Amino acid sequence: MVASLFIFFIGGGLLTLSTQLDKTWLGFALLFLIAATGRFASSVLLTQMHDPDNTPITESRVFADTLRNFKAIWQDKTFRHYSLFVAGMQGMVAISAPYFAVYMLQDLQFSYFQFVTASVVSIVVQFLSLRLWGRFSDRFGNHFVMISTSCLLPCLPLLWIFSTDFIYILLVQAVSGFAWSGFNLCTANYLYDIRPHRSDFATYAALQAALGASLVFIGALVGGVITSYAEPLVAAAALQDYLASALFVVFIASSVLRALITAWFIPRSVEPKIRPRPKILAVVYRVARFNAISGVSLDWLTVVKRRSPNDRE
After folding, report:
1. Distance from CA of residue 215 to its chain's centroid?
2. Tens-digit pLDDT profile for residues 57-82
3. Which end of the chain is more exposed for a tag (fewer CB within 10 A), N or C?
4. pTM of the predicted protein model
């Protein structure tokens, strides 16, 4: 986490400096070179690691069996509604996600350092609020937190419309990080709760991830179409006095569609039977990736105590 934040600031500072020297191309070239070098070094180090379990896989038809499992899992109505909700929300977010960067850099004329600072605020707040959301979900349940935060998500793009002040944007990003922290944590835990006991969790997670990626792809395309017609629409409707940027049309569309997804899911959601899950302090979170389409993606794994030989099965 520290390395990720450090690199964020280094990248923003490098681009800001290169822009001030009228050498923006050089700043990007150096960033791409550093990224390529880091990935190459990572690949070399990965080849030097050994796999402690080098038993060859003898099973056949693994892929075909997985597809059959997908079909069986999809018959579970609770999981189907949950998966469509999470994937739908990701798709609606992808409509506007790429254009917050465009809005900050092009319309608000933020420096690259200011842009990176705004992005980092959201990440830091997500991490700082994980403990709070973990305790809150333990007390009130993941279902309650997931529904509560999903009601906040449609409001987030609208907050960008009311002010262009840098400090205000930082506050908006902090609110966004707070809401997404609870949503991401509790949607992950909710999947643990709704899957049948002793079932293949990886298959459930894979199906949900595949559906989410598909709707993010579709959402990004829809966002591009809306953006193409946003400026003519604002001009035709004489909304220039109310919308300072044509990108606000994209933000509003994303908010409305997020609200529709939430409204669709709430009456179909269920409070599942709680089963033991990893404690929040036994979970390691990290920034898996960041891109213009999906924003910040968090990755997590659990830390468990090694079973001793004397422990009874």
Report:
1. 13
2. 666 666 677 777 777 788 888 888 99
3. C
4. 0.78
Q: Which residue has the tokens 């509790």?
A: 186
- Dihedral sign for Cα 270, 271, 275, 276, please: positive
The residues pairing with 301 across neighbouring beta strands, listed in sequence order, are 284
d(CA 104, CA 95): 17
Amino acid occupying residue 69: N
Contacts 24+ apart (CB under 8 A), 265-270: 265/81, 265/84, 265/85, 265/88, 265/150, 266/147, 268/81, 268/85, 269/81, 269/82, 269/85, 269/143, 269/146, 269/147, 270/78, 270/143, 270/194
Would you call 137 exposed, middle or buried from its count of C-beta atoms within 10 A (0-12, 13-18, 19+)?
buried
Contacts of 223 (CB under 8 A, 6+ apart): 94, 95, 96, 97, 98, 99, 250, 254
- State the DSSP code for 267: G
CA separation for the pair 150, 209 (Å, rounded): 18
